């Protein structure tokens, strides 16, 4: 358990109801082969899940199964395998649709990752709607991938990138955010959960504010989608993006969700095969969504692997995962903040999965090296969020980020590791 | 894999806590900025030259224990050296921290800088140990743009 069956739903539901009463982390861990790895003679303690997550066996099996039994190019051949590969790929799209609670499968676009999804929207919706003097609104807690694509767009269009400020706890200041909404604001792009701080943003409220002024909202769900249930209809956001590899799926695949009416009206992103209905040298008729945005042969095995990952998450239940990870975060927050000389960066009331900290007089890079000696993997540095570091007057933090297979014992190991760091530097 | 104490030797920890020649030169002959975009470390190295001789070398910035101690000990090692000697020393230092030459070999002849030989067991930290040196080289070459380890 939860060995996710290749066909969805059947075993999934049974497993979900079985664990609802108690989250059996040891059984979950057994599904992740890499967790048995020894690192420098120690049991691996993997606390770098915000960078990428490990993969359950079901994901690897699905990919191998695809290559051993189903592989052919999709949407092209009349032959049997092409038909089967196409079916697998489109079933994967449906599994993403149901994971995000989108209205229809055609609202799900396969891309390489959250980064490409944001670039896609900036280069299609953005280039169509943002002009000279217009504004794009982001927040002070964004990942570089939700800053740079908009900066590039604003540079090209002579538009302004506006940044909503955050407070000392690392929370968005909603009143300031609302003041920045104006008729010039053409799109808002905001993270659901901050990768550097762990802050959970009140997306539904933000979308309501934005829609009251007819401004569309893109939500960067890279950190949220593996940690909390996501319902794009309830959030009412216009775009939602995430990466497969942070969702316990393979690298190289990611998702752009967009409301059908918006996607229909957007120009294509890249040109090539599969995104066309007909081509002559004079004129090309574009295919309909989602294919209009999927030029070239896509990452078919990646889609199949992602489906297996999402089915795995469904089987556990996102509510259960969120509750369990919240427990871990509370435990870790108490334990780590109790260590003298340690300061947490990011103390929002609503947080998920991420514990960023600094230790008085010790650089995060040194913390990372010393923890690594005991097999404890954390991230150190600016976490691709240099403006966040600047906001807190630091260059870098040490960041432990949790996944659905982490345990309190691993957090205890982290605490012992931090104490060892302090001994080395005493 | 090396022991932690091979990396964090007492001398290194001591220099990281109390770096030598840690200041700004108001009117340097040459200066350069170096940074490691992966971890956010950044240093500025200031040089006062007399002809081809490094009369004074100081630095400022922020970084981890390894990068700061390396910068500190570099400034101590370089005062009074010619540009050629400084570049030679960097080559030998680089060979040792990347594991291409033994620290105790005669060709290394690193003097006190030999304490950084433990870095060779920690490949992810080589850039920390060499950041100040790359910055120095940029200053010697009179480069205007900040140098990056990437």
- Report strand % of chain B: 15-25%
Sketch the major β-sheet of chain B: 4 strands, mixed
Radius of gyration of chain B: 14 Å
Oligomer state equals heterodimer
Strand order of the largest sheet of chain B: 3-2-1-4
**What is the residue-averaged pLDDT of chain B?**
90
Question: Brief description of this entry?
Answer:
The complex is a heterodimer of chains A (about 425) and B (about 150). Chain A is of the alpha/beta class and about 425 residues long.
Describe the protein in words.
The complex is a heterodimer of chains A (426) and B (150). By secondary structure, chain A is an alpha/beta fold. Helices cover 41% and strands 16% of the residues of chain A. Chain A has helices at 10-20, 25-30, 57-70, 80-100, 114-129, 148-157, 174-179, 203-212, 232-235, 260-265, 300-316, 318-337, 364-372, 386-391, 408-424; strands at residues 38-39, 42-43, 45-46, 108-111, 135-139, 160-164, 185-191, 217-220, 239-243, 254-258, 276-279, 284-286, 342-345, 354-359, 376-377, 379-381, 397-401. In chain A, the strands form 5 sheets. In chain A, strands 4-10-9-8-7-5-6 form a 7-stranded mixed β-sheet, sandwiched between helices. Chain A has a 4-stranded antiparallel β-sheet with strand order 13-14-17-16, covered by helices on one side. Chain A is globular and about 75 Å long. Chain B has a 4-stranded mixed β-sheet, covered by helices on one side. Chain B is of the alpha+beta class. Chains A and B meet through helix 13 of A and helix 3 of B.
């Amino acid at each position: 358990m939860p060995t996710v069956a290749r066909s969805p739903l059947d075993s999934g539901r049974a497993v979900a109801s079985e664990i609802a009463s108690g989250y059996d982390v040891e059984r979950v861990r057994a599904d992740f082969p890499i967790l048995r790895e020894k690192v420098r003679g120690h049991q691996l303690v993997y606390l770098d899940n915000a960078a990428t997550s490990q993969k359950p066996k079901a994901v690897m099996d699905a990919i191998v199964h695809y290559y051993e039994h189903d592989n052919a190019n999709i949407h092209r051949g009349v032959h049997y395998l092409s038909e089967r590969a196409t079916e697998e790929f489109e079933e994967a799209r449906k599994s993403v649709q149901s994971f995000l609670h989108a209205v229809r499968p055609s609202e799900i676009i396969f891309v390489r990752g959250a980064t490409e999804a944001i670039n896609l929207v900036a280069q299609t919706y953005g280039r169509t709607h943002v002009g000279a003097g217009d504004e794009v609104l982001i927040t002070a807690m964004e990942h570089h991938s939700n800053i740079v694509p908009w900066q590039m767009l604003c540079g090209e269009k002579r538009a302004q990138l506006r940044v909503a400020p955050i407070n000392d706890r690392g929370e968005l200041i909603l009143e300031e955010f609302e003041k920045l909404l104006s008729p010039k604001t053409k799109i808002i792009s905001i993270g659901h959960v901050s990768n550097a701080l762990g802050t959970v943003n009140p997306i539904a409220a933000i979308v309501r504010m934005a829609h009251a002024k007819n401004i569309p909202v893109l939500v960067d769900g890279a950190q949220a989608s593996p940690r909390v249930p996501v319902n794009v209809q309830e959030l009412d956001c216009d775009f939602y993006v995430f990466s497969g590899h942070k969702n316990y799926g393979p690298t190289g695949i990611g998702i752009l969700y967009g409301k059908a009416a918006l996607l229909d009206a957007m120009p294509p992103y890249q040109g090539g095969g599969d995104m066309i209905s007909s081509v002559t040298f004079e004129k090309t008729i574009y295919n309909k969504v989602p294919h209009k945005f999927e030029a070239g042969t896509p990452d078919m095995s990646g889609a199949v692997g992602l489906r297996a990952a999402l089915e795995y998450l469904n089987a556990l239940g996102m509510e259960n995962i969120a509750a369990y990870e919240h427990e871990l975060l509370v435990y870790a927050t108490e334990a780590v903040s109790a260590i003298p000389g340690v300061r947490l960066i990011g103390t929002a009331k609503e947080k998920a999965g991420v514990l960023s900290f600094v230790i008085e007089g010790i650089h995060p890079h040194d913390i990372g090296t010393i923890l690594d000696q005991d097999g404890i993997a954390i991230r150190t540095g600016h976490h691709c969020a240099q403006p966040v570091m600047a906001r807190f007057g630091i260059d870098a933090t040490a960041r432990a980020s949790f996944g659905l297979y982490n345990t309190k014992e691993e957090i205890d190991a982290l605490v012992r590791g931090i104490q060892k760091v302090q001994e080395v530097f005493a | 894999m090396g022991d932690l104490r091979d990396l964090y030797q007492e001398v290194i920890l001591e220099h990281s806590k109390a770096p030598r020649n840690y200041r700004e030169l108001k009117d340097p002959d040459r200066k350069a900025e170096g940074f490691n975009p992966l971890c956010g470390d950044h240093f500025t190295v200031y040089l006062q030259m007399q002809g081809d001789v490094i009369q004074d070398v100081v630095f400022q910035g922020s970084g981890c224990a390894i990068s700061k101690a390396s910068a500190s000990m570099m400034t101590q090692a370089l005062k009074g050296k010619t540009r050629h000697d400084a570049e030679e020393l960097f080559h030998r230092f680089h060979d040792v921290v990347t594991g291409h030459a033994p620290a105790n070999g005669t060709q290394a002849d690193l003097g006190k800088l030999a304490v950084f030989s433990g870095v060779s067991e920690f490949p992810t930290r080589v850039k920390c140990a060499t950041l100040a040196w790359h910055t120095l080289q940029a200053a010697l070459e009179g480069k205007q743009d900040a140098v990056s380890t990437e």
